[in-house]
UniProtKB/TrEMBL annotation:
Function: PPIases accelerate the folding of proteins. It catalyzes the cis-trans isomerization of proline imidic peptide bonds in oligopeptides.
Lineage of the organism: Eukaryota, Fungi, Fungi incertae sedis, Mucoromycota, Mucoromycotina
Identification of the protein by name: Serine/threonine-protein phosphatase 2A activator
GO cellular component: cytoplasm; nucleus; protein phosphatase type 2A complex
Keywords, ordered alphabetically: Cytoplasm, Isomerase, Rotamase
Length: 369
C-alpha cells in the first residue's frame, strides 16, 4: 500500500467501537504494552542502548527545544490562556519537518509521518494540549518502527531517552506558551496534560524496594528521585504548578492511587485506565488519524470539519438526519457523546502560577532542570 496522508475516520460511537476491535487498535496498544515492559525497574539514568537513529531523533528534539527560546511568548500579562506565539513554534515545526528528519525517515513516508509528529505538540488553533496529542507522538514512534527507523532493541531508548525528552519539551511548551488543557477535565485528575508518564513511570518503579506509591506525599523523596522516575517527575510538576493545597484536594485520583500497596497494582490500573479513559473516549479518538502505516478501514473517510472552533469533528460534510446543534452552531451526530470542552476555554494552571511569579518578579519556572 502506498504511503498516504493520515485522515480522521472516527465520528460516531459505532466507529469507535469498530476501531477498538481493529488491527490498528491492537498494534497501537500492544506497542504501548511492549514499551511498558521494556522499562520495568529501570531508571531514566540507567545505561541503556542508544542507536544512531535514537540519537538523531534526540538531536531533533533538542533543536525544537532551542526554538522555544528563539520564539518568546507574546506579552499579555493579563491573560491566563494560551499564548499566540505557540502558533509560530507550531508552524516552524510543520514547515521544517522534512529538513529536520532528512536522512532519518524515508523521503516517500515524510508526508504521512509528519502529520503525527506535528499534531503531537498540541492544537494550533486552540493552543491546547491533551492525551490525544500525546497519543499522536506514540503513533509517530510506532510509524517509525514500521519503517525500520526504530527497532525492538530501541525500546528502552525510546521511552527513557526519546519519550522523556519529548515530555521535557512539552513541559517547556506548557510553561512558556501556557498551553490550555484539552478538555475541561484534563486527564481525570492525574495531570492536566499527560497520561503515559504515569503508566511508564509506574513500570519503572514496578518492584522498587523502598519507594512505595504512598511516597508521592513525601516531598524529599519526590525531589530526590524525580529525575530518575517519570511518575515522581509528574508529581514534582504538579507540586510546582498547584502549590495552594495538597494532592488530596487538587489531584484526588492520584491521592487515591497512592493507597495501593505495590506499584504492580498501580501499573496494571494505569493500563486499564489508559484503555478506558483515553483510547475508548470519543472526544479524544475522533481526532486520531489513519493512513497506510496505522491503517483502519472502519469509520468513514468523510470525517471532515463542519464546525471546528473547538477542534472537534462533530459530523460529516453534510447534516445527518436527527442531528442536534448547540448554541455555538456545532453539529453533533445523533447519539454522539457531547464533547464537554466545546466552547469552554480552560485556563492553564501554569498560567495562574506564572502570573503569581511575575507579580513577585520571579522568572518562569522550567521543569526537569
Amino acid at each position: 500500500m502506498p504511503y498516504q496522508k493520515p485522515h480522521k475516520r472516527i465520528i460516531t460511537k459505532e466507529h469507535l467501537d469498530d476501531f477498538l476491535s481493529s488491527l490498528a487498535y491492537d498494534e497501537y496498544i500492544n506497542y504501548i504494552l511492549r514499551l511498558n515492559d521494556a522499562v520495568k525497574n529501570t531508571k531514566i539514568s540507567a545505561d541503556v542502548a542508544v542507536s544512531k537513529n535514537v540519537s538523531d531523533i534526540l538531536n531533533v528534539l533538542q533543536t525544537l527545544t532551542s526554538w522555544v527560546d528563539e520564539i518568546p511568548p507574546l506579552e499579555n500579562s493579563k491573560s491566563r490562556f494560551g499564548n499566540p506565539a505557540f502558533r509560530d513554534f507550531y508552524d516552524k515545526v510543520e514547515n521544517s519537518f522534512g529538513e529536520l528528519f532528512q536522512g532519518i525517515i524515508p523521503e516517500a513516508a515524510m508526508e504521512e509521518v509528519s502529520v503525527y509528529f506535528v499534531e503531537s505538540f498540541g492544537n494550533r488553533r486552540r493552543i491546547d494540549y491533551g492525551t490525544g496529542h500525546e497519543a499522536n507522538f506514540m503513533a509517530w514512534l510506532l510509524c517509525l518502527e514500521k519503517l525500520g527507523v526504530l527497532t525492538k532493541e530501541d525500546d528502552q531508548g525510546v521511552v527513557l531517552r526519546i519519550f522523556v525528552s519529548y515530555i521535557a519539551l512539552m513541559r517547556k511548551l506548557q510553561f512558556e506558551y501556557w498551553l490550555e488543557p484539552a478538555g475541561s477535565h484534563g486527564v481525570w485528575g492525574l495531570d492536566d496534560y499527560h497520561f503515559l508518564p504515569f503508566l511508564f513511570g509506574s513500570s519503572q518503579l514496578y518492584d522498587h524496594k523502598y519507594i512505595r506509591p504512598k511516597s508521592i506525599h513525601d516531598e524529599e523523596v519526590v525531589n530526590e528521585f524525580s529525575k530518575d522516575y517519570m511518575y515522581l517527575a509528574c508529581i514534582h510538576f504538579i507540586n510546582t504548578v498547584k502549590t495552594t493545597a495538597s494532592l488530596r484536594w487538587h489531584s484526588p485520583m492520584l491521592d487515591d492511587i497512592s493507597a495501593c500497596k505495590v506499584w504492580t497494582k498501580v501499573n496494571q490500573g494505569m493500563i486499564k485506565m489508559y484503555k478506558a479513559e483515553v483510547l475508548s473516549k470519543l472526544p479524544i479518538m475522533q481526532h486520531f488519524m489513519f493512513g497506510s502505516l496505522i491503517h483502519f478501514e472502519g469509520g468513514t473517510d468523510q470525517a471532515t470539519h463542519l464546525h471546528d472552533d473547538c477542534g472537534h469533528v462533530h459530523a460529516g460534510p453534510t447534516p445527518i438526519a436527527g442531528d442536534t446543534t448547540d448554541n455555538n452552531d456545532n453539529v453533533f451526530a445523533l447519539g454522539q457523546e457531547y464533547p464537554d470542552c466545546c466552547g469552554i476555554p480552560v485556563p492553564s494552571a501554569i498560567a495562574a502560577a506564572g502570573l503569581k511569579n511575575r507579580e513577585k518578579g520571579a522568572p518562569r519556572p522550567i521543569p526537569f532542570d
